[in-house]
Amino acid sequence: MTMVGEQGVSIALPGEAAFDAATQIFNLAGRVRPVAATTARTVDEVRAAIRYARARRLPVRVHTTGHGAPAGRPVQDALLIRTELGGGVEVDSHRRVARVPAGTRWAAVVEAAAAHGLAAPHGSAPTVGVVGYLLRGGLSFYGRLHGLAANSVRAVELVTADGELRRADAASDPELLWALRGGGGGFGVVTAIEIDLFPATRVITGASFWPAAHAPRLLAEWRRWTLDAPWEVTTSLRVMNLPALPEIPPALSAGPVVSVDGAVLGTAGDDLTLARRQAENLLAPLRAIAEPVMDTWGETVPAAVLEAHMEPDDPIAIAGDHMLLREIGDEGAAEFLRLLGDGSGSPLVTAGLRQLGGAYAVPDPTGGALNHLDAAYAYSGAGVVEDAASLAAIEEHCAAVRAALSPWDTGRTAPSFVENVEQPQGHLGPQRIAAADRVRERVDPDGLFRGDITPNASRL
């Protein structure tokens, strides 16, 4: 173990327990093999780690949970900084703003906000890190009403390549704040972030599951509903091949199922009068097609939205694909069903469509480099990697799905949905890429953090 820096920071080398802890990732399909690693718990430790890297001419990479590890460039020949800063979530209920230290997971933010009758634009898993999710766009089950989660970011605190702690907000450095929000990364080590919250103490959320034999009628009805769905409702439809595990209800692992999950927000905090009607308009026609084998939709607290999508809690190796699609119409739906509809012969554990539109599609004039998604659906499909053969089968099937859905592919992506660095990535146009690069040249002229830039988000 090496001690460096004014205040001292522990730099761990391969073979040490601290190295293993710092390099742990959620998606085990990622490649994380740095020459050294550290877990930074204070701003001073972040600054000392950067000095260590500069003195040894090492590039710096940054992560917390590693949910998106396979989508970034492999971590190698670099110092990896894992951010786990202390201090806890601070909520200003009057301003409806939360200050969140880097390393915080969404479950902690949801809990802190709920104490004040507020909610946050979190993702579908409680274990996902707040900073990475937000700065890569962030698709929430509140998104059709509130837009991309990145638009909720009001300030970012970060240590840049010169070792200085900066605050980027609309008053102090609007250009850097703009670039941080969806600009592709590579600007420094974020130490804290401030986000807008919104009133919500009760929501309608959950998931319904049917045997996959009903997929054609369910998809047709769900698609019809999405064409003019209210903005207060955000849902997804998935075909799922779940393994027989103790934590999975037998009704869901007995064979392929189709799931419709999501959330419905009230329009005025606790008032769910309209939300009940909107949920019924969605669910009643689906339930009329067939009785679900499991149905968890109901009125509950916002924290339950974190559980609706049934994301795994433990690290796992996942491979898959992602596209942003235009409205697929009957022809696109037929192609989706042909390859994924009944789950037979597919190595994918889950494959589906996340509903976009609404506020997702509206450019936010105060937003960042990525401030909206011009697409009808976010497609994603993934399987569990057990060995080389299973990886090959997943990749082959994903390629077939991509080819089948290519007529409706927008050519864009949502950064937090991308599964693999080799896949097409393109969430920014040329002008925004150039603008983000100008900010990188200002705050990181030597490219210390260049490895953290999202592929195809920079021309440096």
Describe the structure.
There is one protein chain. The protein has 13 helices and 22 strands. The chain is α+β, with helices and mostly antiparallel strands. Strands 15, 16, 17, 18, 19, 20, 21 and 22 form an eight-stranded antiparallel sheet that branches. It has a five-stranded antiparallel sheet with strand order 8-9-13-11-12. Strand 11 and strand 12 form a beta hairpin. Helix 7 packs antiparallel against helix 9 and helix 7 packs antiparallel against helix 11. It is globular. The relative contact order is 0.15. The mean pLDDT is 95.
Short description:
54% of the residues are buried.
Report on the biggest sheet.
8 strands, antiparallel
Structural class: alpha+beta
C-alpha geometry: globular
By DSSP, the count of extended strands is 22
Tell me the distance between the termini: 34 Å
Strand content: 15-25%
Which ranges are low-confidence, i.e. pLDDT below 50, for 5 or more consecutive residues? none
User: Kindly state the mean pLDDT as a whole number?
Assistant: 95
- Rg, please? 22 Å
Helical content, roughly?
A: 25-40%
